[in-house]
Amino acid sequence: MNIPQTSFPRVVIIGGGFAGLAAAKGLENEELQVVLLDKHNYHTFQPLLYQVATGGLEPDSIAFPLRKRFNDIENFYFRLAEVTNINAERKEVSTSIGSLSYDYLIIATGSTTNFFGNTNIEKYTMEMKSIPQSLNIRSLILENFEEALLTSDLEERKKLMNFVIVGGGPTGVELAGALAEMKKEILPKDYPDLDIRLMKINLIQSSESILKGMSEKASEKAEDFLIKLGVDVWKNLRVLDYDGETVSTNGEDHFKSSTVIWAAGVKGESINGLEAECIVERAARYKVDGYNRVSPHKNIFAIGDVACMNSEKYPYGHPMMAQPAIQQGRLLAKNILAELKGKNMKPFIYNDKGSMATIGRNKAVVDLPKWKFQGVFAWFVWMFVHLFSLIGFRNKAVVFLNWVYNYIRFDRETRLIIRPYKNKNEYSFKNEI
Amino acid sequence: MNIPQTSFPRVVIIGGGFAGLAAAKGLENEELQVVLLDKHNYHTFQPLLYQVATGGLEPDSIAFPLRKRFNDIENFYFRLAEVTNINAERKEVSTSIGSLSYDYLIIATGSTTNFFGNTNIEKYTMEMKSIPQSLNIRSLILENFEEALLTSDLEERKKLMNFVIVGGGPTGVELAGALAEMKKEILPKDYPDLDIRLMKINLIQSSESILKGMSEKASEKAEDFLIKLGVDVWKNLRVLDYDGETVSTNGEDHFKSSTVIWAAGVKGESINGLEAECIVERAARYKVDGYNRVSPHKNIFAIGDVACMNSEKYPYGHPMMAQPAIQQGRLLAKNILAELKGKNMKPFIYNDKGSMATIGRNKAVVDLPKWKFQGVFAWFVWMFVHLFSLIGFRNKAVVFLNWVYNYIRFDRETRLIIRPYKNKNEYSFKNEI
What we know:
The structure is a homodimer. Chain A is of the alpha/beta class. The first copy, chain A, has two domains: 10-39 and 81-113 and 267-340, FAD/NAD(P)-binding domain, CATH 3.50.50.60; 119-264 and 354-430, FAD/NAD(P)-binding domain (3-Layer(bba) Sandwich). Chain A has twelve helices and 25 strands. Chain A has helices at 18-26, 49-53, 66-69, 119-124, 131-150, 154-160, 170-190, 216-228, 322-340, 376-389, 393-409, 427-430, and strands at residues 10-14, 33-38, 42-44, 63-65, 76-80, 83-87, 92-95, 98-101, 104-107, 111-113, 162-166, 200-204, 232-234, 239-242, 246-249, 255-256, 259-262, 266-268, 279-280, 285-288, 300-302, 307-309, 355-360, 363-367, 372-375. In chain A, the strands form eight sheets. A five-stranded parallel beta sheet of chain A has the order 5-2-1-9-21, with helices on one face. Chain A has a four-stranded parallel beta sheet with strand order 13-12-11-17. The longest helix of chain A has 21 residues, at 170-190. Chain A starts with 9 loop residues before the first strand and ends with a helix.
């Protein structure tokens, strides 16, 4: 990999998401060599992927070049590489561009879509964890509308205009809301010769409420917002299968749809090589101790979505969101530096700053630890927090400009099929990184 | 295609580039049915493709959704379709989504890269006529740098960092300048462990001067700018072949390079079906009369790059640029309306507003009919004209914001490999629309 061996200990970080970046930042300009590995050359701001998928933002404005982030840092190396194996005994990772030894290893690989073993669903539904996947969804929505124009078969047209989103978490809710706004403001103008009433947006949730991680009030209000926007919300309904045409469920309702988006589950993006006992089954996350250490390995840590730290308050690990990832990354950097200086590490305590979701124009729900509110003000808070969290001034400015424009003009102008999806949806294309 | 037959005559326009859009605009809200066909759902502002390729702009900001452009126009239809054949006798076009009859046909398909029959060059070089192709170039540049980091073979590294641009027209010159600025400002920071002196940018021109269509002064000054930026300009050198490794020429100089961009020629994007005599050989443009009519067909017109109108001043047709395309589109719309009202058509006279090219920061050349100037002021004029010509307020604003940011920060922040190219460069991927 052409990375020099120095007298400094080498910290290898796998993944440039929220967790990995926070750890790397904490280790800047110390007596350490830091190597960051990622399969993309950019950081993805995942909370706004749904706006890329629905034509509200350009992909470049929610991505930030990883090299730029660190290009003035001494002893820092970035390599564009996919890690394929961890060898804890040899203290070495294998990657697509060769192997690399480490003194400390930080696994910050994040999460990937969980299809719970259903290969049909994996094959036919769309996922939205990366920028290329979001562009696939954008293309498919628009391509289906173009096709709906052409068919004279009413059933076929209905199927092309029927959208099913599986999973009532923040991703599913935000995407359903954005689609509903496209239905209201954009698509009737763009497709005046289509009967827009045929367009249906279904949000399917297996349990009895949406936004399960949030307060009851937030969940109710979000559902209310969605229904007002014209989304059909299905609760206590479990999707069993999808053959590319029909979504079958455990209830009476089945859905003929050409576009099914799977937002019903995530799992850790774990890597081959660490012993089986390190992995929490099903969730595929690494079991870590209070210092994010993947025991029994003293020098291997996992942070963010891929880490599962059990505590009294969080018996199944912390929520798979940006905040725990950032906080764990920051603390781990401090802990590694402390250990190198012979000091004690501090255990991780999650500072829950709250959570929020946006449903549409002037419609959001916010749960702060001491205050829960919904509506216009929540929507402004949501926007401010997300704008503030984006990396880079240019990104902030471009996103802000797009939001102001979209707000004033009731528009989403990046509805471009730049990366056509249809007739290419072989598995290989779908999973392109 | 599900387009209603009305009592209005139907005008079918193939292509939503500068020419097609100008014609469509001129036919708005008249007693006509207008059908616009394009293989993309967006208009591409081709003059700025090189900035997408070099990470200065996001693709979405130089594209505009075609449906949005016309979504408040009566009797206007857009279809996402590729036209495969023209049947003049039956007054019908065949497309990827079925056939369509016309009363008037306007061919505005633009131009495509001309490899002059060299299949090796077609296979191994990069072209830059569309957004996906520009993104391929952006990815390849960055991927080659990532790879250059990894190899310990100096010759291999030199090859990966050696860029060859064939063709000294505006495209080649602007791209060479932008690459030179990346070399100066961006890449040394992003790749501090690479010896940036190994990076070479070669611009190869077969004739004795670059920017042949412009004034001698502009050509000389542009060359001067390029050389100051560190570009190696090769004149009177003809590229004969490229096998994916070595560019061979008719001179003594050969170039080992992993990235060869072919900007040495364009030809009309003609369509099967019109008789051979309509086509100017080699250039593949339709021979048209003074009214842009493809004789002997009274109701078939060609405008823009794909049209070749011989005149005393332009014996080989008008230059393949935006201005003739826009002017021909506008006049043709008026002429069709005139004919429908029994009035006479007006012959086309090209109003040459001049031409310009930018080489880099504060460096451009502008030839106006009565004034030729170079340098900082030319650069501001270039920017103003391009900003003003972009379609859509949002695009103008985003591009402006990026330019201001890039100017102040000496940066180009969209250096993201969102669409990986390497190891995928089979012919099929390369030519994806």
